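User: Hey, quick favor. My workstation is busy. Could you predict this chain's structure for me?
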Amino acid sequence: MEETRQPDPKPDRKQDEPIARPSGARTPTALTEVTEEGRVAAGFGMAKRAAALGVFVFGLAGVVYLTSAHLRTDMLVGASRAEARSHVAGEWPDGATGAYFETLGEWVELLDPEQRELALRAARRAVEADPDRAFAWARIAYFSGSETEAAGEESINALRASMAACPLCDAELVRWRFNHVLAHWDHMPDDVRRTAFTHADMLRWTGGNAEFLAEMRVKAHNAGIPYDAYRADVDTPVRFWEIEAEDGF
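Assistant: No problem, here it is.
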């Protein structure tokens, strides 16, 4: 076998002279740096793809959850009385929406108005799931007391929460709260009284409330409530030229 021999150094170059590199040639160090940069870039790209996939999966799970939650509520809204009784008597689901529990509470009131504790439980679950449910807070204010008993701390705080969640968004709710405050006047803190009058003042600027407000005024006078004085102290947030008053006012 022929022996492989190393080529002799060129006669015009010294043995220890470094070999000249062509212009732009990469050194081993540069090659290592480029390789590391490539690895980092590749890893960063994989991380971005994984993050995007995670966001997609999380978003998909959220859509599925919301769809399922809305479907559950819609089924309860459209349930028959027998189906509703089954929902009320059965185990109430964890993770259901505030709308579901509020609907459940409405069914309790419809099926058996005497079940005050059950209706109160449903309203509490509704605001636990969604603290902005003003009607559920109003139900807590109502069911935690009674028509004749004094409004307790839970009832008053729930009334405050209802007022904060929906100051003027629903005329029916504003009317109910105003009547409730007048009915329990002696037990209502002054801030709740004044808030109720402020909200009720706005009813003057919408149609269909003249008879209600006249009735509340008579009711207040009969109970010794200084209706006109509280009404005069209201600093309405709406300027008179921005709204058209109801006929008769």
